Backbone:
């Protein structure tokens, strides 16, 4: 029983100590100019519950979300210096973004409810 507790405590300590190291790989985006550039004529790729999702954003504030057979028009706008709000038929959600230090195409976004999404961002969009 003591050995199991030792292994458990050691595992927890390793996990806790690696969290700060992992968080140092991401940099907060706190510039409205950078957020606008991130959403101007770019394509976001991610998965949701194993299903590929593609998001195309134009510089004029319009976009489209594509997943399986779903094509949902949306709009986007920068809010303050650290958020982008995306509005579509189901509502509006605002996100804060971070970019990877190691991979310039990789981003993370989080909303106030704590949902997190890992994104691959590519320049260019398809016609919509």
Residues:
């Amino acid at each position: 029983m003591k050995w199991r507790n030792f292994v458990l405590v050691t595992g927890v300590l390793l996990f806790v100590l690696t969290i700060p190291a992992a968080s140092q790989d991401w940099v907060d985006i706190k510039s409205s100019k950078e957020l606008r550039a991130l959403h101007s004529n770019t394509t976001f790729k991610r998965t949701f519950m194993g299903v590929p999702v593609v998001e195309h954003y134009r510089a004029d504030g319009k976009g489209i979300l594509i997943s399986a057979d779903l094509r949902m028009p949306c709009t986007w706008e920068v809010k303050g210096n650290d958020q982008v709000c995306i509005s579509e038929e189901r509502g509006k959600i605002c996100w804060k973004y971070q970019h990877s230090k190691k991979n310039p195409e990789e981003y993370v976004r989080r909303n106030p409810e704590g949902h997190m999404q890992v994104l691959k961002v590519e320049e260019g969009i398809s016609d919509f």
